[in-house]
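ARCHIVE CARD
Drawer: 12
Card no.: 0347
Subject: one protein chain, sequence and derived structure
Cross-reference: see card 0346
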Amino acid sequence: MTTQPTDAETLRGRALTALLAARDRTALLTDSVEGPDLVAQHSPLMSPLVWDLAHIGNQEELWLLRAVAGREAMRPEIDSLYDAFEHPRSARPTLPLLPPEEARRYAAEVRGRALDVLGDATFHTEEGPGAGFGTGLTDAGFAFGMVAQHEQQHDETMLITHQLRKGPAVLSGAGFGPVVDPVRQSEVLVPGGPFTMGTSTEPWALDNERPAHRRFVEPYFIDTTPVTNAAYLRFIEDGGYEERRWWSAEGWKLVRGQRLAAPLFWHEEGGQWLRRRFGTVQPVDPREPVTHVSWYEADAYARWAGRRLPTEAEWEKAARHDPHSGRSRRFPWGDEEPADRHANLGQRHLGPAPAGSYPDGASPLGVRQLMGDVWEWTSSDFLPYPGFVAFPYREYSEVFFGNDHKVLRGGSFAVGEVACRGTFRNWDYPVRRQIFSGFRTARDAHVRDGSVHDASARDGFHGEGA
């Protein structure tokens, strides 16, 4: 059972905090550039920043003012402009979008009215099977949590756009202190057996995280930290991008077609690998988790290392399962909401922390940095859980189920705390590289005579990249 408070006033306060934090970040991301940068499309993969700004306001109006409060539409004529399913990103610059100042005014007016709705709303938190936990828009304040998560997700999307834009740096993040208590084990054994995956009690969990169900996994080993730049460089230097045998058919087609030789934003100059991050070119930090790699690159590295990507169930068991109590936690460290000591979240640092950071955020088995830093590719397709029910609309998850998308877990440094938990599921096409994606690897453990035996010898120390 979770220890998270679910009384109405606590949830109302949490919703207010989450909404304000998201808007502060949205303002920073959109106020940091001039009008031309707001309306420009910096990549066909991304929307103009001004589209995201007005879309955030439009979704908040749709769900909090219209659906929850039953109010008349403020700007019904713009609904289709900001419908993410009606217009692909590449076409959005051609639409008659609200100009920057008008978009700001619209989003601000919606927010003012939404806070009035929040103050007056009744949060249903009665006990009962499923009651008070996302089965209705006002159950446990679900709609407010959903809107806060939606805005934080677009804040991450806008940060990706900032990474793609050309020109000088306009954003900065706080630096990291020294790594505390570096890891000494490159991998840990996760015992085989059942565990509870997903949730039926997390108030603001989205539909694809539900319902809680039992999963059985065989014993396996998983990296203590995400794969680092140093470890990935060994793959590059060993000819990883030139060896067909490490790649799936589609992955090799991507490598050949796009002439890939390193993660996105990397280049070699004078015998040194450099990377561009938010307008600044820096040497590649060997201690950081590798970032901006596609699923195909993660899969190829794992094959080269004699390992594999973990399944989604394996990732979640490593992140949530407490072998002592047998229960699944909300987060690796427990049920407490994320704090600065637990994980690198919320765009505080604008980059992943060195491998081995955040010992206070480790799982019971000692796996670190499962939350924040980089989204971690898994081997699993994005599929519904048994008993899945779309809520509150099919287009959030259901239309994406299938083998076109791979699951990513854990969040990144760009993810807001409200949109990060042990059950949260992200998904994307396996070719995607502009996202803040990395990975960790796993390998099978063999059981013989009731004991676990190594399935293979470990090839090097991939966790810290030593």
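Annotation on reverse: The domain at 176-466 is CATH 3.90.1580.10 (paralog of FGE (formylglycine-generating enzyme)). The chain has two domains: 8-164, 176-466.
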